[in-house]
Amino acid sequence: MAGNARGPSAGLPRRAWAIAALLTLLSCGGAEEATPREPSPTAAAASPTESPAITVADVLSTDERFTTLSQALVKDPLYLEVMSRTGWNHTVFAPTDEAFGQLPAGRLASLLEDEERIPQLLDNHIVPELVPTDEMEDGDLQTIRGVHEVDVGGDPIMIDGARIVEADLVTSNGIIHVIDGVFTVLCLQIGSGDPQCSDLLEG
């Protein structure tokens, strides 16, 4: 009789029905727990593959060998901003602290306080293109502010008497060559005559 039908569990004792209901509930919960979950946006953002690329500015600002050079950069914040740009693609000859330590202390302090000479000092160590060491040749190398003599005949390569003590630090937007000297002499080539030179330490 249709009116007395009570479903599939009608003939089960109450205890058996309760057990069956519990097993059904656990089965549903297990299925739900096994369903794969999408990673949260936060977890995805924390993935190592999403970390930003290292720039020239990052290296010069954080490497403990360049604290003096970093002080000069901080004096002219535009440089740090420019050195952080994607596609900057310049080469920096970066003097170490030991290199700056070879300069007369009083004149170095004066140089690092001079807002006009700091940009000249920085420009004198920057080439506006990528120059890996395997592309360097004997002769003149033009930086933004000067002309420097390169000697590739020995090991290490020499530039104006300074040695490249660590070469070809490749970043996302440029190349850094670590040097053990400071280019304080500005030599500008004007026409076909001899370069006109001046020493930043004499300013």
Profile the largest sheet. Answer: 7 strands, mixed
Task: Give the % helix.
Answer: 25-40%
N to C succession of SSEs: HHHHHEHHHEEEEEEEE
Structural class: alpha+beta
Strand content: 15-25%
Strand order of the largest sheet: 2-1-7-6-5-4-3
> What is the mean pLDDT?
81
Report Rg: 33 Å
Q: Low-confidence parts, pLDDT < 50 over ≥5 residues?
A: 1-19, 25-51
Number of strands: 9
Q: What is the distance, rounded to the nearest whole angstrom, between the alpha carbons of the first and last residues?
A: 113 Å
Query: Judging from the principal axes of the Cα atoms, what is the shape?
Result: globular
The number of distinct helices, counting runs of at least 4 residues, comes to 8
Search tags:
alpha+beta, single chain, seven-stranded mixed β-sheet
Walk me through what this model shows.
The chain has 203 residues and is of the alpha+beta class. The protein is built from 8 helices and 9 strands. It has helices at 14-34, 41-45, 56-62, 67-75, 77-83, 97-101, 105-112, 117-123; strands at residues 90-95, 126-127, 139-142, 147-151, 158-159, 162-170, 174-179, 185-188, 196-199. The strands form 2 sheets. Strands 2-1-7-6-5-4-3 form a 7-stranded mixed β-sheet. Strands 8-9 form a two-stranded antiparallel sheet. The radius of gyration is 33 Å and the shape is globular.
Task: Tell me briefly what this model is.
The chain has 203 residues and is an alpha+beta fold. The protein has helices at 14-34, 41-45, 56-62, 67-75, 77-83, 97-101, 105-112, 117-123; strands at residues 90-95, 126-127, 139-142, 147-151, 158-159, 162-170, 174-179, 185-188, 196-199.
